[in-house]
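Many introductory courses stop at the sequence. We go one step further.
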Amino acid sequence: MKSLDLNVLNWFCEIVDAGSVTGAAKALGVSAPTLSRNLSQLEQQLGQQLIHRSARRFQMTIEGERYYNALKGGFVHLNEQIDMLGDNGVNLQGSIRISCPESMATDYLHEWVVEFLQLYPDVDVNVSFALNDQQFIEDQLDLSIVVPPPTQPRLTQKKLLDTPMWVAASPDFIKKFGEPKTPLELVNFDLLSSDPRKGWAFVNSEGRFELSPSPRYVISSMRAIVDAATRGLGVVYAPVFYLNQAVEQGRLVRILKDYPTEMRHIYMVHADRKLLPTRVRVFKEFIEVCMRRMALDKRTT
């Protein structure tokens, strides 16, 4: 087979996207006869009919769908790269699918996505809730933010953040019920959790201890759980960046300070063995910057 003209292949994809030769001609600024002639020549060169076209019918053949699905993503990526190399460098377009734990999505990711969408008006973002990477392939995600270490062997991971955990309760709660002196005593208190499947882990010179909580109140929002703690409902175990403001304001008091907690980690996951589209790469880098900014803003001793 003679080498194929990439421009003609791109025109084929544009014709499919437009739903007609005439529509593609207007979008491309090329005459309709020129597009029609090039499409016919491409089909002859491939030995396959790609599109059924007549006055009443315009539909891809099975072979046309196969070529379109194989080619379209590459041309989108190529056009994005060309835009990035241009003077403006910001003409990103297309969809990004990302998953994230619900608490982090509503408390932080939402604000970052809104900021990103304002910067790139031709991009759309779909956020779903997930605690891990188990559905990454099935849900056809581009990126996933997870707390448990990624498990899918075909995925690439990057650790975005290490965060210590604090244990805290409100002054009123402590005044009324006292406070635990060791992690073991936590079982005697009302506990609050955004995910009871996660243990409360502590590490000291004597080794590691992990409590499997039986919370009085569970809600899939860390911010809501912290709010419940400030209202005196129980003891909370949460990342520093969720607790430090309430502690600084005196609405919560750190407890069990002599028992260092196990670090929690936040990972960014994306597909391996394929070219990451420019819009996804730019979004990934944007989220990484936001995560670092959050860590610096919330950092405390």
